[in-house]
Specification:
- There is one protein chain.
- 28% of the residues are buried.
- This protein has a two-stranded antiparallel ribbon.
- It is built from 28 helices and 4 strands.
- It is mainly alpha-helical.
- Helix 13 runs antiparallel to helix 14 and helix 14 packs antiparallel against helix 15.
- It is 68% helix and 2% strand.
Length: 619
């Protein structure tokens, strides 16, 4: 233990960055503070500079005249213009809403928020700056990535199907690819780890198979396997590849695996005799052991699929006794499923007592099988009405707690067991506590739950109560660690695109989806009301935005900012603005200027008439 602690401290010291000198750290701290202050005030300085430039150019650009022209032009618009304007706004916001909804369901995040954070925020100086020692941010990033990597570790599916006899037949029938590129790439890495070693160059057949496992094209791999058999008729890995990918039925796969077993046992005995000669021979023995275990396990799965369940159980038990260090292959999960098919519940309980231990990694198969065994004792007599009237018995409480424990470990499984979501073929790799593991478990164990009367009824009545015990699953857990936040991304890479990935906890809709939906609905309603009731909407618009209000604002703005000679007062305070044809607005300014002159003349004539007809005051 002391040596281990010393090694751990040495590794930690080697991984940490060297400490800088004191004077250097102080100078770097002052520079970091200055840079952070400038970055924080950069956006404000640009905004103030823009306002100052606009104020300085108000006279050359004739901003006040243009503002007056635009105000008069907007007051003279017809309801048809507002119908077109609100209708266009509704269409644009509706398209944005549809795109946001699609992007959120495909990637799990808002497109507008992502663009704002990744592109606009750095431009506005909104980066998260913290004054810290050099290298501390990289250390935190390394720790976060290491934690995410441990949470999202991908495991090989213990009950994975045969590519040629099952996956390819599914593709022939449906035209869909059940395996993703990421999943097949992980399988290729597993094959190179299990079936190759550094001494492959000593045997030509192994050299050919080393290239075959790296091939992406299935026909090329099959062709390479036949070439290896031509060089050596006892090449076990070549028979394995043909059984996995070329055989179209389980019977053909079993026949090829039996040939592989005969060749693999011969090579394994030969390697045992030479294992102590050199480290290369030890590596070769490990490779031959992996090949032999893989062949026997697949033969057991063939026997299980062909109905010879007791034979499959015997092969699995022999494997677990003969090769106890290979527990990472999770052969006990294959054994649990076969024993459940035999309805040997006492043997299932014995296997669970050995592997449902705190020191071993949990899985959905272990947790839900334990819940199934406890549910089996009370499910046939369970009734929600009776339980609510008299309370739960001790056995029922134990069953409900086991269900809550299983649901907390993997909350995606109940929807597949209760057939609330459709099943697909399980992938070759699964993510613990993810949707891929839920599919793999439900695909093989749904029949066992259906066989026990009332088990699914009890599950349906109690599984949602788990979420009341863990209201914040990403921050804290009840019986397990908090639920990892990276399962959705990994499951999307492992599962085919035609499958709707189950997400937990369910994400709330982003703000911009609600905003665009409300904007689309409101503008569409305004457009419809303006089209159907133009008079009423006109009265409403004048009541909300009275022309006198904008007139007073405009008059005060022009009288304050405009130089002499540009504006002159008309009788009774009416404002007449002269716009030349070669102003900033061009032809639009000229037309609006004519319209303003006509309005001013009409207003002046009307006011003179009223002055003539009015009675003198103070008479």
């Amino acid at each position: 233990m002391a040596d281990g602690d010393g090694l751990g401290e040495a590794a930690t010291a080697a991984a940490s960055p060297p400490a800088p000198a004191p004077g250097l750290s102080l100078s770097l701290g002052w520079r970091e503070r200055l840079r952070a202050g400038l970055a924080g005030t950069g956006a404000s300085l640009w905004f103030v500079a823009g306002l100052g430039l606009l104020y300085a150019l108000r006279v050359p650009l004739r901003l006040c005249e243009n503002l007056a022209a635009v105000t008069v032009f907007l007051n003279s618009l017809t309801p048809k213009f507002y119908v077109a304007l609100t209708g266009t706004s509704s269409l644009i916001s509706g398209l944005i809403f549809i795109f946001e909804w699609w992007y959120f369901h495909k990637h799990g995040t808002s497109f507008i928020e992502q663009v704002s954070v990744s592109h606009l925020r750095p431009l506005m100086g909104g980066t998260e700056s913290s004054v810290s020692e050099p290298g501390s941010s990289s250390t935190r990033e390394n720790e976060t990535s290491r934690q995410n990597l441990s949470e999202c570790k991908v495991w090989r599916n213990p009950l994975n199907l045969f590519r040629g006899a099952e996956y390819r037949r599914y593709t022939w029938v449906t035209g869909k690819e059940p395996l993703t590129y990421c999943d097949m790439n992980l399988s290729a890495q597993d094959h190179q780890t299990f079936f190759t070693c550094d001494t492959d160059f000593l045997r030509p057949s192994d050299t050919v198979m080393q290239k075959a496992w790296r091939e992406r094209n299935p026909p090329a791999r099959i062709k390479a396997a036949y070439q290896a058999l031509e060089l050596n008729n006892d090449c076990a890995t070549a028979y394995v590849l043909l059984a996995e990918e070329e055989a179209t039925t389980i019977v053909d796969a079993e026949r090829l695996f039996k040939q592989a077993l005969k060749a693999g046992e011969t090579i394994y005995r030969r390697s045992q005799q030479c294992q102590h000669q050199s480290p290369q021979h030890e590596a070769q023995l490990r490779r031959d052991t992996n090949v032999l275990v893989y062949i026997k396990r697949r033969l057991a799965m063939c026997a299980r699929k062909l109905g010879r369940i007791r034979e499959a159980v015997k092969i699995m038990r022999d494997l677990m006794k003969e090769f106890p260090p290979l527990t990472m292959l999770n052969i006990h999960e294959n054994l649990l499923e076969s024993l459940l098919e035999l309805q040997a519940y006492a043997d299932v309980q014995a296997v669970l007592a050995k592997y449902d231990d705190i020191s071993l990694p949990k899985s959905a198969a272990i947790c839900y099988t334990a819940a199934l065994l406890k549910t089996r004792t009370v499910s046939d007599k369970f009734s929600p009405e009776t339980a609510s009237r008299r309370g739960l018995s001790t056995a029922e409480i134990n069953a409900v707690e086991a269900i809550h424990r299983a649901v907390e470990f993997n909350p995606h499984v109940p929807k597949y067991l209760l057939e609330m979501k459709s099943l697909i073929l399980p992938p070759e790799h699964i993510l613990k506590r993810g949707d891929s593991e839920a599919i793999a478990y439900a695909f093989f164990h749904l029949q066992h739950w259906k066989r026990i009367e009332g088990a699914l009824n009890l599950l349906q009545c109690t599984w949602e109560g788990t979420f009341r015990m863990i209201p914040y699953p990403l921050e804290k857990g009840h019986l397990f660690y908090p639920y990892p936040s990276c399962t959705e991304i990994a499951d999307r890479e492992l599962l085919p695109s035609f499958h709707h990935v189950s997400v937990y906890p369910k994400k709330e809709l982003p703000f911009f989806i609600h905003f665009t939906a409300g904007l689309c609905s409101s503008t569409a309603m305004i457009a419809l009301l303006t089209h159907e009731f133009p008079e009423i909407m006109g009265v409403f618009a004048k009541a909300v935005f009275p022309p006198s209000f904008w007139g007073n604002v405009l008059q005060s703005a022009v009288s304050f900012h405009q130089p002499q000679g540009l504006a002159e007062s008309t009788p009774h305070g009416c404002l007449s603005v002269s716009l030349k044809e070669h102003s900033v607005l061009g032809d639009f300014g000229a037309s609006v200027s004519d319209h303003i002159r006509k309005l001013g003349q009409a207003s002046g004539d009307r006011m003179h008439t009223q002055g003539d007809t009015a009675e003198p005051r103070g008479a």
